[in-house]
Amino acid sequence: MSVSGLCQICESRPAQDRCENCGTFACRAHYERTVRLCVDCAAQADPDPGRNEDVDVHRF
Ligand SMILES: [Zn+2]
Ligand SMILES: [Zn+2]
Q1: Nearest-CA neighbor of 10 among 41, 43, 39, 42?
Q2: Distance from the CA of 50 to the center of ligand 1, in angstroms?
Q3: Ligand 1 centroid vs 52 CA: distance in angstroms?
Q4: In which domain of life is the source organism classified (predicted)?
Q5: What's phi and psi for 37, nearest 5 deg?
Q6: In a domain, 13, yes or no
Q7: Is a pLDDT exceeding 70 seen at residue 49?
């Protein structure tokens, strides 16, 4: 992949890939290759197991 420019997250390392969701260019440290997203989008797309308790509605 020919990505030019710096990672838009840390702005210190060369970007390796582009987030398919927001288009952010990210270095390897800030790009989740398994989901092809930057770490920001990957964190939002990833279901957080710690928040499952909010789904419980009827708890009388
Ligand atoms: Zn980075
Ligand atoms: Zn993104």
Answers
A1: 39
A2: 26
A3: 30
A4: Archaea
A5: -130, 155
A6: yes
A7: no
Q: Is the pLDDT of residue 48 over 70?
A: no
Distance between Cα 35 and ligand 1 center (Å): 16
Tell me the CA–centroid distance for residue 34 and ligand 2, in Å: 13
Number of domains in the chain: 1
Give domain status of residue 60, yes or no.
no
Ligand nearest to the CA of 38: 2
Confirm whether 2 is domain-assigned. Answer: yes
34 CA distance to ligand 1 middle (Å): 16
Residue 15: give the domain boundaries: 1-42
pLDDT in tens, 2-45: 557 999 999 999 999 999 999 999 999 999 999 999 999 999 98
Say which ligand is closest to the CA of 20: 2
Whole-angstrom Cα distance, residue 30 to residue 13? 10
